[in-house]
Amino acid sequence: MLIVGAGGHGRCCLDIAREYYDHIAFLDDNHINNMINDCKVIGQIDDMRLYCSEYKDIVIAIGNNKLRKQLFNKAVELGYNLISLISNKSIISNYANIDKGTVVFPNAVIEANVTVGKGCIISTGAIIDHDAVVGDYCHINALAVVSSMTKITEYTKVDYGQVYRKKDMDETWKEEYVKQFGEEPSFF
């Protein structure tokens, strides 16, 4: 398996990857040919194209939501299998739906009828309550809570310990959404 990014997020992904894989390598622009936590950095991020025949499974371990999406799309174009890396120490409802390329860390809880989009990060101890929707390329940080029936838009970061509730999405929030994406949110 190939992990793109050997920073803090990538090193944490390595811990989960070891639950499932024996042969793991990093791609990272800053640590080429170094060993990080007993795992070799075999090349730069742009070298993804060189390793697609050797490594089929890949996870994009980049904290920046928009850059993660760009690299996710590049990996898809190159024919990689974008896996969801889910810790066996997390609690996931049988009725939750987690899309490809998402990472779920230990002690995260994803309740019934939750939908988590592509390329998300659900950090340690995060809780996503029933019937919530987390858009693509979001980051629900450590110990954050997404309350039931809340919808979170693409690229949103819910910070450490923050509680994100449905009522938090007021007119100001909608105005910011329109500025950022050029259209009204479609999920209200």
Automatic annotation (TrEMBL):
Q: Where is this site: Increases basicity of active site His?
A: D131
Q: Where does acetyl-CoA bind?
A: H139
The answer to whether the entry has keyword Transferase is yes
User: Where on this chain does substrate bind?
Assistant: D28, D29, G63
For this protein, the record's Gene3D superfamilies field holds: 3.40.50.20, Hexapeptide repeat proteins
The PglD N-terminal domain extends over: 2-74
Citing just one GO molecular function, the answer is: transferase activity
Q: Which PANTHER family match?
A: ACETYLTRANSFERASE (PTHR43300), UDP-N-ACETYLBACILLOSAMINE N-ACETYLTRANSFERASE (PTHR43300:SF7)
- Write down what this protein is called: UDP-N-acetylbacillosamine N-acetyltransferase
Lineage, opening ranks: Bacteria, Bacillati, Bacillota, Erysipelotrichia, Erysipelotrichales
